[in-house]
Every structure is written in C-alpha cells, then in structure tokens.
Amino acid sequence: MLSDAKKKARGDRNAGQGAARLADHEPAALDLEESPQGLVLRLSGDWRHSGVASVQEEMARLAKSADANRITIDLGQASHLDTAGAWLVRRLKLRAEERGGTVTVDGPHTWVELIEALPDVTAASVRKSEPRKPLFNLVFEPLGKSMYELWDDLVAAAFILGSAVRGAQMKLNRGSGVSPASVVAQLDHMGVRAVPIIVLMSFLIGAIIAQQGAFQLRYFGAEVFVVDLVGILQLREIGVLLTAIMIAGRSGSAITAEIGSMKMREEVDALKVMGLNPIGVLVFPRLLALVIALPLLTIIANFAALFGAAVVSLAYSGITFDVFLGRLREAIDLSTIASGMIKAPFMALIIGIMAAVEGLKVGGSAESLGRRVTASVVKSIFVVILVDGLFAMFYAAIDF
Amino acid sequence: MSETEMTAEQAEGTRETILEVRDVTVAFGKNVVLDSLDLDVYRGEILGFVGGSGTGKSVLMRAILRLLRRQSGTIRILGHDYDTANEADRIKLDMRLGVLFQHGALFSALTVRENIQVPMREYLDLPQSLMDELTAVKIEMVGLDPSAGAKYPSELSGGMIKRAALARALALDPDIVFLDEPTSGLDPIGAAEFDELIAQLRDTLGLTVYMVTHDLDSLFSVCDRIAVLGQKKVLVSGTIAEMLEFDDPWVQSYFRGKRARTISGYPDGSGSNAEQYRTE
User: Which subcellular locations apply to this protein (chain A) (predicted)?
Assistant: First the structure.
C-alpha cells in the first residue's frame, strides 16, 4: 500500500516536469527519389538502435537489389545516428558497390567517418557453420558418447575409491593425514543436521505402512501381524533405502556443488600445485563422514519408524505398546537388523563417490554446475536402489 | 531547480555534464565509505578514476549504477535523476549505459554472440539477421576474431573476455560506458591496444568513458581527465599536469613515483616528498 502511494506521488511529480522526460525522437524514416541522375535516399529521424526498426526492411531490400548506377545518401535530415544506422547505410553502400554502382554519402563528417570505419561483415560470420551430419551420426553419436562417458565414470569412480582406500594425503613425518576437524565438521553437516528430517520422514513412513498393513490384514483376522510386516520391511529394506535416498538428495548434491564450485574457481588446481591430492583433501573427509553418518542415521530412522508404527497400531487396531514389543521380539532377530545395516556403508560409499565424480566433472559455466548436481543426485539414487535390489537377491540366494 | 543548476554548469564549462554526482554519502553500518562526494563527467571525455585500494572506487561506481544503496545525495545521468524517473524512462536510461565489469561478467551459458544480443533482444524489435550483422560489427570493432562469436566465455582468454564484455557493453551504442579496471590482467601490449581501442571508439562513437583503473599507462595515454578518490571524497580532478602540481602526499607518490616517472618522462620531482612516501 505504502509503495503504491509513493509510486503515485512519484508519477504525479513526473507529470509536472514533463520537459525533463527522456524525449522520444521521431523514428527513422526514408525518402526515396528516382531521378535520371540516379537514386537519392534522404534519411530523417532517429537512426539509432532504438529507432531503426521502422526502416530496416526497406534498407535490407535496397541493399539486396538497388541497381541504380549512382546512389546518393543524404544524412542531412537525420537527428541521430549510431552504429546500427551507420551499418544499414554501410551495408547498402558495400552491396551496391559490389554490383558496380557508385554511392556517395552526404552528411556531417563525423557520421560519414563512422560509416566508413565500420567493417564489412555478414551475418554468417558470427554463427558457427557446421556441416549437417548424416542421420547415422545423429542417431549413434549420442549413444557412443554416453557409452564412453559411462566408462569414464566407472574409471573415475574406481580412481576415487582407490584413493579413498589408500587414505587421505600422507603428510611428512606424520602417519595418517586424516584431519579429524574436517571429518567432524562434515559429520555435523551430513549427520547431526539431517536427524530432524530423517526422524520425521521415517516416523511417517512407519505409520503409513502400519496403517495400510492393518487394513489389509484385518480381512484375515491377522491384524497383530502388522508388527511383523513393519518390523521386517523397515529393518531389512525401507529404513536404509529411504535414508540413503534422503542423504543422496541432501548431502550428495551439497558435495557435488562444493567440489564443483571449487573446481570452477581453480581451487582444486591450487591444491594440486601445492602437492596435495584433491581427492584426499576434499573427498576423503566427506566420504568417511558419510560412511559413519549413514548407518547411524539408519538406526535413528528405524527407531522412528517403529515408533510411528506402534502409535498407529494403537490408534487403529488397539495393539498396545506391550503387545507390539512382544510381537516384535518374536518377529525379528539379529540377522534382520544386520541385513539392513550391512547395506548402509555401501550406500554411503556410492553416494559419496557419485557426488565426487560429478563434482570433478564441472566445467567453466554455471550451467554445467547445475547439470552436474542434477546428474549426481539422479545417478546416486538410481544406483542406491539398484544395489539394494542386488543385496535382496544375494540375501535370498544365501538364505540370510 | 536542478534545471537552472544544469544551465549554470554548462555556461561555466561550456560542456554538457553527462553524469552529475552531488553530495553522495554511502555507509555500511557505521563505516562511512563516501562522504558527500561530488563528481562531474562531461560528454565525450575519458575520465580516469584512481584511488588507493579500499578507498571506495568500486563502491562509487556501484552506487552510480544503483547496485548499492546510498544514504543521501543525487545522481543524475544524462540530466535525469533515476530515483524520480518513471518506469519507461528508467529503461531508456538503462539502454544508454554500458558497463564492463572487472571480470567481464559474461553469461557463461551463452556464446559471445548471444551475450552481445541479450540487450538487443530485450529492448529492440529487429530481425535476427540484422542482429547477427550488428553483432559481427561489434565483434570486429572491439578487435575480436569473427569466429569468437560462436565460442563460450569459458573458451576465451582473459584479453578476449575483456573485449567480448566491451562488445556487450557497447551493444546498444550507449552514451556512457563504465569500465572497471579494463586493462587489469592484460599484458602491456594487450593493455595498450585496449587503451587505443577505447580512445578510437570514443572518437568514432562519441562515447563518454568512466574508467576505474590503476594502470598508469592508461592514465597517461588516453585519459583526458583524472579524478582521485581519497578521504571519502574526490580529492582532485583535472589533467595529468594538474595532478603533478597537486599538493597531497598520496597523489604525489602515485603520479611521481618511480613507475610513473619512467612512463611519463616527466622530470623527477626532486624536493617533492614523493621519495619519502615511497620508501615508507
């Protein structure tokens, strides 16, 4: 409201001082006169970028086809001229002279000088003229490129994994180069600060599974088995999977963006010339922090989901906490918990390595940073789900 | 009121004031950077703006370009106060300004050609072919190879980025261009070429140039007038000769230091306190 009132006052003030407004000039105009001596063009109005729109079509036509032997261009009536207007005149002059005509330009000498100073260019010279590719290339070139990229990704991932296994940068006179401070800082970012959202998400997921399970099992009079359902599903699969997906979105993207912007600003190169291994310094602490944080977050997620399931069971099916816990103790054993938890460090490694690989691929532009962050999140979520499926098949095969 | 001021100004200098800064104060919290600063820039001149690091050269430029809030004062560009102008006039004023940022600030996702065409597309109603031709003209004018038009900023060298950014600043043939350290990071030959280019463009296009620079070569070779920022104000403005006369330790050591003397060929200011300040 206030700003509206202000604007109105300002408008009124402007109306008062109309003379001080930025004057609108007459747009450019062109007057053609054919005489026995040749063609005479009289230019008038504002021949600047903002004014030439009205005459550019006519000037383009003249440049293409004016075939009089003598052309005289009179700038006397024009109020302004800048490169845009000068270029229109210059183009007409150049093209007409190529056809063997003579062109004279009359006007203030600064303008004539400007016109003469402009280079001879064509629109094509600023566009890359690439020969059209045959259909075969159009179809198979992207496919081949993506195959090579996939291979490069695998090599880069193996390289980063290898560097990480070797450990952080070895320092002179010191055994291990792991800097505890940076690992702890990363643990805070990726672990502690993720707790609220993980707890909330898992609580809701546990509650939803319990509710839907209870509704379906009610048909068989087996409502109490909802505890088995939630317990096994959450501990074996859902807990670690959803936590990993959340962390891929939350921390994987952050890792890619951090490393990528450091790459863009040559900070990664600065590390290299100091003799530091960028992977040891940048990637290793993050990878280590992820491998520690993800299992811990999974434990928290499991507790939250089971609590959510217990609350919903009480509300919808009247299963008390005592009954819930008793049933849970029978349904699950250590192997259920272990089979879920074993997966967590692998998921963490996948997320960290994917994020680092993409981060180190960032090029010079802001756009490439955005593309890499997207690719990092999409790829790591995809691979996390893929690996979860592989684990499920593996467990089934060994009857775990 | 300001109208009469303008005419008085013109009668006095017989030159059109294209940029008029009056009584401008900029402060960040309690830290006052510019304190009721006055500055005039006249049409068709190349003004070199110098000052020690951290004296607020960039702050002033950003305040003029309205990238920073000022606490008080008026800034009139082409005789118009941006604060009281309406929406349409503001756009027209924006079209008459060009800015070359220190690091180019080219849009990294666009090619050089597309960068130059951004203001054209935004403000003009011209066909693509004419815009391409005008872009090619600008690219040649700033001394770039025509093939640079199809390249992305990340594929250009530092000097080429400066030239491409200048071409973008000149896209609409502005009345005044602001150059922030245009020759920093260029080799002496490239810097000299750039200076020459700016002088040449001033002569052909009638540009007014506001140049923040530390390059003594530029100051001696192309600048018509120099303004020195110090103690939160414009300490002095005038020609090189006037700078050399001016009695201020910083100005003396700047323009009479060893580096300045070898460039200018001016006699050593023996007896001046330049020596004393340089060795400190």
Answer: Cell inner membrane
Contact A192, A294 (CB under 8 A): no
**Residues B244-265: what's their mean pLDDT?**
74
What is the rounded CA–CA span in Å between residue B215 and residue B104? Answer: 17
Q: Chain A contact for B17, CB < 8 A?
A: no
Chain A positions in Cβ-Cβ contact with residue B78 (cut-off 8 Å)? 22
B150·A128 Cβ contact <8 A:
yes
C-alpha distances in Å from residue A64, one per residue of A58, A92, B249: 10, 8, 63
Q: How far apart are the first and last CA of chain B?
A: 48
Task: Parse chain B into domains and list their residue ranges.
Answer: 15-238, 239-280
Is B163 part of the contact surface with chain A (CB cutoff 8 Å)?
no
Q: Which residue of B has its CA nearest to A7?
A: B86
From the number of C-beta atoms within 10 Å of its C-beta (0-12, 13-18, 19+), residue A235 rates as: buried
- A21/B89 touch (CB, cutoff 8 Å), yes or no: yes
Q: Yes or no: is domain B15-238 CATH 3.10.20.30?
A: no
Pick from B134, B142, B152, B207 the residue to mutate for testing the A interface (most A CBs within 10 Å). B134
| Residue B230 parent element (H or E) | strand B225-230
In sequence order, which residues have a C-beta less than 8 Å from that of residue A241 and are 6 or more positions away? A384, A385, A388
Contact A10 B84 (CB under 8 A): yes
Q: In terms of CA atoms, which chain B residue is nearest residue A364?
A: B154
Q: Is the pLDDT of residue A225 over 50?
A: yes
How far is the C-alpha of A150 from the C-alpha of A156, rounded, in Å? 10
Chain B CB contacts of A19 below 8 Å: 3
Measured CA to CA, the distance from residue B173 to residue B98 in angstroms comes to 8
Structure tokens at A253: 């993207």
What does the domain layout of chain A look like in residue ranges?
29-122, 177-398
Per-residue pLDDT tens over the stretch A124-170: 766 666 677 888 888 899 999 999 999 999 999 998 888 777 655 55
| Band (B263; pLDDT cuts 50, 70, 90) | low
Asked if A56's CB is within 8 angstroms of B130's CB, the reply is: yes
Q: Assign domain A29-122 to its CATH architecture.
A: 2-Layer Sandwich (3.30)
pLDDT at residue B72, rounded to an integer: 85
**Do A53 and B140 count as a contact with CB atoms less than 8 A apart?**
no
Q: Where are the alpha helices (DSSP H) in chain A?
A: 2-16, 56-65, 83-98, 109-117, 135-166, 180-190, 195-218, 226-233, 239-247, 253-264, 267-273, 278, 284-317, 321-331, 334-360, 366-398
Q: Is B113 on the interface with A (CB under 8 A)?
A: yes
B189 vs B259: CA distance, rounded Å:
17
If phi > 0 it is left, if psi is from -120 to 50 it is alpha, else beta; for residue B104 that is left
Q: Could you tell me if B46 and B198 are in contact, meaning their C-beta atoms sit under 8 angstroms apart?
A: yes
Question: B23: distance to nearest CA of chain A, Å?
Answer: 21
Pairing of β B72-77 and β B46-51: unpaired
Across the interface, which of A83, A127, A365 has its CB nearest the CB of B154?
A365
**Residue A271 near residue A284 (C-beta atoms within 8 A):** no
| Residue of A269, A257, A221, A248 whose CA lies nearest to A344 | A248
Best mutation target among A7, A22, A109 (most B Cβ atoms within 10 Å) is A22
Is B84 in contact with A87 (Cβ distance < 8 A)?
Answer: no
